[in-house]
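Hi F.,

I've been meaning to write this up properly since the lab meeting, where we talked about keeping a consistent format for the predictions we share between groups. The idea is simple: the sequence comes first, exactly as it goes in, then the structure tokens exactly as they come out, then a line or two of notes. No screenshots and no reformatting. I'm using this chain as the first example so we have something concrete to point to.
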Amino acid sequence: MFILPDLPYAADALEPVVSARTFSFHHGKHHKAYVDTLNKLLEDAGETPADLESVVKASAGDATKKKVFNNAAQAWNHGFFWDSMSPTKQTPSGDLAAAIEADFENIAKLKDAFVAEGIGHFGSGWVWLVHEGGKLKVISTHDADDTLPKAGVTPLLVCDLWEHAYYLDHQNNRKGFLETWFDTVANWSLAASQLEAAKTGGEGWKYPAPT
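Output, unedited:
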């Protein structure tokens, strides 16, 4: 069975960007519901997968497994989202900083692209910083969709665009949420390690293995 991983920081560690109250619903209820539903679906199907990544990839694009995909991908997305944030304000450095300069000119223009992609995405979904084709790119995915089924794409960071991710703290101000998120809690250490994995063919970030 897949688990609901603990947050990698205290529930109030990211305030005021993400409050403990938001985490109580977002992590404690939304993420938990995806994990619980997925476990029930797998149990009913008699399946015992080795990892969550294989479940997402195997169910992507299969209309008969749409419910499995939605819950598996959302469980994975949320796990990666928690780790995409840090209570310690960070600045990109090393190879990551060089890649940002090469592909966006500077961190300010990357922020502009990230925020624009996020506010331009209609409805629920996710905004990602990814590595693809030797370059950094900003993309968004809709609803539960993620980067795992996309060949050659490695996620570096993700921010949740579903309203429950920010509404209690920022109301309908998605732009303000994205700007503050990018400036203060983005986990550039994770982004750097993901970039290294993409360049070397390493495994990269994985959801906790089932128990």
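Notes:
The two ends are 5 Å apart (CA to CA).
Residues 20-83 form a domain with the Helix Hairpins fold (CATH 1.10.287).

If this format works for you, I'll send the rest the same way.

G.
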